[in-house]
């Protein structure tokens, strides 16, 4: 069995050495629960786990109050927002990545891989149980994943990952034509065999991603849309949901008393507090009403000078941008899309909108400089060129600004940076192209009321949740034809190139050539208005001890974090 690897080096160096990170998976001390013969520290079937003595400097109350932009319904398969810090500690993934992206044992103790790289045998922890005392089995994993890639799982993301697409027999299940995936076999209760149609070493990285976390399928089928809201759903991790209800804005998780691992967490509860207005959440921080904060705007910049030790960089490459709804006029015409990009001086716009804080992070490609295969200037014809923009608008079917339909913009949040970027875009479109029939409304799309379906420009973000450049490009390609994201671009040749890219490993000499060609082709559709390559960070109060995170935005050290006395 292949053991798992430990922490080696800082994030930027790890990003440059991504090839080694993804193909090597060996290690000494696992981050997850160790196998136990005696089970002395663990919960026996049907018994609660004994307590864990607190450190001498720990506070009596072990509660974390966490503030961020918003929360969605708790569901690992569809999670893509701000529940990521702890969702994999409620419903566990087979592996859990550390700060340098190395997968560590979590629900699984390790794996074997065949000589041809096609068959992975996953060993589920022998002590793993659900919170009702029943064993976590390989069959649980198999049936839940079959559901998670099927049409029944609305909004689920598991099939978006290239390694998952290579599981033998998965496509008929995705298409709704079959119920079982032939490449998933429960060999016995604690052994899962995964067969691929082509080698893909990144499969283990994928099985550390929160979208692959294991849920008890019966709970979903019986609970409906709100299956996780009231805390009755079974879990297999050290925490459980107490209440998670976006309708009532109540978000709280607590210790799972039936946690089977070798050590109980110190933290007793985590209370989530949603604040769309980051000015409000910053006041909460200043008043010590929260312990951990996640901000996406310049609101955090004063802290950088006054309290730099509060920052923890999330090792996560990410982009902020506005997408263009190509199903709605005028963005059904690529000449209009090109003209609006070329009419904006993006360096100047970002300098002003972000007040100098992101001047060196202007988004000019999808891949960020920290990630493998980055190539500067890989966006065809990108750059400020007002004369070209005028020619492109004239060449569009609209012929000029007079006949353009109204352009509606939503910032998808109250960030002053997003709002100011939109205002600058609008001003430059007016000055350089004569376009004036444009309106921007801060907030989410519902700020437009009945006009919501007519909004063509929406603020979005994307990150490399699996630290692999080809995987990230695969994700961007998925956006092009995703009706939920209002981008309706069909490029069959690009799709074939993406499928071919998926067959390569990051260690292959041709890998970056494929990645860069895919990126160039995607950006050549001009389906977005760029903003920044962002740096995601958490801010923690000094009394939060042992905090660490990973590329998933997961609090990987949650088992050992604690609240110290103030």
Automatic annotation (TrEMBL):
This is ABC transporter substrate-binding protein. PROSITE patterns: PROKAR_LIPOPROTEIN. It is found in: Cell envelope. It comes from the Bacteria. Belongs to the bacterial solute-binding protein 5 family. The keyword Transport applies. One of its GO terms (biological process) is peptide transport. Residues 103-478 form the Solute-binding protein family domain. One of its GO terms (cellular component) is cell envelope. Its main location: other. GO terms for molecular function: peptide transmembrane transporter activity. It comes from Caldilineaceae bacterium SB0664_bin_27. Transmembrane segments: none annotated.
